[in-house]
Design goal:
The complex is a heterodimer of chains A (about 250) and B (about 240).
Chain A (H helix, E strand, L loop, with lengths): L3 H16 L3 H20 L11 H19 L1 H9 L1 H5 L6 H21 L2 H10 L4 H27 L4 H17 L3 H9 L4 H9 L2 H9 L5 H24 L4
Helix pairs in contact in A: 1-6, 2-3, 3-8, 3-9, 6-8, 6-13, 8-9, 8-12, 8-13, 12-13
Chain B lengths: L1 E10 L2 E11 L4 E5 L6 H8 L7 E6 L2 E2 L4 H6 L1 E4 L11 H11 L4 H14 L15 H13 L5 E5 L7 H14 L4 E6 L2 H7 L2 E6 L2 E6 L1 H5 L7 H15 L2
Parallel strand pairs in B: 3-8, 3-9, 6-7, 7-8
Antiparallel strand pairs in B: 1-2, 1-4, 4-5, 9-10
Helix pairs in contact in B: 3-4, 4-5
Classes of the chains: A mainly alpha (about 250), B alpha/beta (about 240).
């Protein structure tokens, strides 16, 4: 039922619209400056005297936390505010096609931002001999993590016609999903006397924990499956919300 | 070619559209009249497949809008209220996007876009960004998107709203040019428009269909033949009966 051609057409329009305004360039510069500063400055990349990308991958989720909601907040909110949602959904496309096209466009945009961090890889290659396999796994994990965050952003954007609300809700959900895998938080929950199995279960839902394994160079199908699961779930939620609240 | 049967829409406890049925044949221009808030836009949004009806349905060229939405939408050209457009696109870029979604490619796509630009008199602005267009050109750009695929059914929600008299004239001219081989529905609350373009008119008030006939038939309901009095009587009675 889903027509890939329609997905492609909507993807192209959406992707191009990022670059039609200065927003995309501001975003890319902000992303790279932030990532560079955090990696080389804050986490003392050189002082560690280890040629690997651990500092980069450790901090990347926190950069996502701020910048992915900013890049997805307009996807549906803007369509609602300007009324183009009525135009789009009376064209011969299904809501799924529109949703997937938008999601893939935002994901591809973040993918480009991620790709542009390649000088960090070159720096480590020049300084030492890092584990190429681990770097590849780390990037794959980072890309999957960004996809899950983008899907959350798409969902948040579908909730209201206000971009600000979309931004804040996406940020809150992503923050929550990152924090539940963070060691101090897990330890705090365990201190309340929550059984270990439940604590582990909560941590297993975290965006962070699955990324940790991948950035160490382990690709487990469970981790990949987790990210795909989050994407499918969030897009289904976005579908439900958009479908039931189109007119409001 | 277009049949609306028992269309009903509830928003929570509010009944916005109540059991509306009518049919439109090829070559007809149907005026869809009613006071503000009577349910015109809601009805059009259901017929075009944007909103799901609470009950009832519409059939467009034999395709049910509820059961076969994509096939039905292919037959429709729709100009929503206030002409929503992607502001950061250029006019041709936008029409190319619409054309591709409508399934045109290559040389045919270019022909269709050029035709739509010509029919909508958009030549002076075809390379401009939509956000810089005047209200009249925005309206025409949205009109161009609606007629690009030469649809059998053309539905327009207040196409002349907010336009100056010259622009209104152009839009009515365009509607007349299209009318011979299509089903056209035009919603409006400007009564002069009915005389100018419509072959038939329906009036809805408070979500209910209160009149359906040719402009002459509707006029005949008032001793002086005044359309505004007919409209007033029909819509006010309905509003009072609801209190």
């Amino acid at each position: 039922m889903t027509n890939c051609k329609n997905v492609r057409i909507i993807f192209k329009r959406e992707f191009k619209s990022y670059f039609d305004s200065p927003v995309a360039y501001v975003f890319l510069v902000a992303f790279l400056v932030l990532v560079g500063f955090l990696t080389f400055g804050l986490s003392m990349f050189y002082e560690r005297r280890q040629a690997n990308l651990t500092p980069f991958f450790m901090l990347l989720p926190w950069v996502y936390l701020l910048l992915i909601p900013a890049s997805t907040m307009g996807l549906w909110a803007e369509e609602r505010r300007t009324g183009t949602i009525e135009l789009l959904l009376t064209l011969p496309v299904t809501l799924i096609e529109a949703l997937v096209g938008k999601f893939l466009a935002a994901w591809a945009f973040i993918g480009i931002a991620l790709g542009l961090t390649f000088p960090i890889v070159l720096t480590t290659l020049w300084l030492g001999s890092p584990d190429i396999g681990a770097i590849f796994c780390g990037y794959l994990g980072a890309f999957l993590l960004s996809g899950a965050c983008v899907a959350i952003g798409v969902f948040a954007s579908a909730l209201s016609r206000s971009q600000v609300i979309g931004f804040v809700i996406a940020l809150t959900i992503i923050l929550f999903m990152l924090m539940i895998g963070f060691d101090p938080v897990i330890n705090a929950i365990a201190l309340w006397g929550v059984p270990a199995s439940i604590v582990n279960g909560i941590a297993a839902c975290s965006l962070m924990q699955h990324f940790d394994a991948m950035r160490r160079g382990v690709i487990d199908f469970a981790d990949v499956g987790y990210y795909i699961g989050v994407m499918v779930f969030m897009l289904s939620a976005a579908h439900f919300v958009t479908d039931s609240r189109k007119a409001s | 070619m277009l049949t609306v049967s028992n269309l009903t829409k509830n928003f929570g406890p509010i009944q916005a559209v109540k059991d509306v049925s009518f049919a439109v044949k090829k070559g007809e221009v149907l005026g869809f009249l009613g006071p503000n808030g009577a349910g015109k836009s809601t009805s059009m949004r259901m017929i075009t497949g944007f909103l799901p009806p609470t009950s009832g349905t519409a059939s467009i060229c034999g395709h049910d809008i509820v059961d076969e939405p994509v096939a039905a939408k292919r037959c429709i050209g729709y100009l929503p209220e206030n002409a929503p457009l992607y502001n950061n696109m250029k006019v041709t870029e936008f029409l190319n996007f619409i054309g591709k979604i409508r399934g045109f490619e290559g040389a045919l796509l270019k022909t269709k876009v050029d035709e739509a630009i010509a029919k909508s008199r958009l030549e002076p602005v075809y390379n401009r960004a939509i956000e810089n267009l005047s209200k009249g050109y925005r309206q025409r750009t949205c009109f161009a998107q609606a007629i690009l695929h030469d649809p059998q059914v053309l539905i327009m929600d207040e196409p002349t709203d907010g336009l100056d008299p010259n622009q209104k004239f152009v839009v009515r001219q365009m509607i007349k040019e299209m009318s011979t081989d299509k089903v056209i529905i035009v919603s409006t609350h400007i009564l002069e428009e009915v005389d100018a373009v419509c072959t038939r008119a329906i009036i809805i008030a408070n979500g209910r269909l209160v009149a359906n006939g040719t402009p002459a038939e509707l006029r005949a309901q008032d001793p002086q033949g005044r359309f505004d009095m007919v409209f007033r009587n029909l819509t006010l009675i309905e509003e009072k009966s609801n209190d």
